[in-house]
Structure to design on (161 residues):
């Protein structure tokens, strides 16, 4: 009987991408517009948001597939704020529901980052710096910088498809 051997080394090959953290106070559609304008891309809102924790938190996702350079651009929000009713009993017969705003983060290691720009392609460091410098020219963005995705504990949250 013949012995069959399966080689799985190339099956789980990780796609390389550039991850840029953006700090700003703009709405998601506004930052997508400014990135489109300053970077010459065409980010469009995806019909479905990224949902976690049984719809307890959802994050807006914008995407553009550049077929010319075989690149996929994603802009995703990192912060989700939800109003949750907190039941409290103050020693009376009735429970009182107090609305509390809870904040959830897509990537908890970077709680201060408002948005992530994920560029799926194998760019060099000089090209990454070019994108960051172009983003920093946007007056409404406080700061932007590259993030090493290999050091993230929750990098699986950045899988959108």
């Amino acid at each position: 009987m013949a012995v069959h051997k399966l080689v799985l080394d190339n099956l789980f090959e990780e796609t390389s991408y550039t991850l840029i953290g953006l700090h700003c106070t703009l709405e998601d559609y506004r930052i997508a517009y400014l990135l489109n304008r300053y970077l010459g891309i065409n980010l469009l809102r995806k019909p479905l948001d990224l949902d976690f924790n049984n719809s307890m938190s959802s994050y807006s996702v914008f995407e553009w597939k550049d077929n010319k350079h075989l690149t996929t651009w994603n802009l995703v929000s990192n912060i989700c704020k939800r109003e949750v009713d907190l039941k409290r009993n103050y020693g009376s017969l009735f429970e009182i529901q107090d609305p509390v705003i809870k904040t959830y983060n897509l990537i908890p290691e970077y709680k201060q980052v408002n948005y992530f720009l994920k560029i799926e392609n194998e760019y060099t460091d000089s090209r990454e710096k070019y994108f960051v410098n172009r983003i920093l020219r946007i007056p409404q963005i406080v700061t932007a910088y590259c993030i090493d995705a290999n050091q993230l504990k929750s990098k699986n949250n950045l899988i959108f498809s």
Observations:
- The two ends are 41 Å apart (CA to CA).
- Strands lie at 18-24, 44-45, 50-52, 57-59, 61-66, 71-77, 79-88, 96-105, 115-120, 141-147.
- DSSP finds two helices and ten strands in the chain.
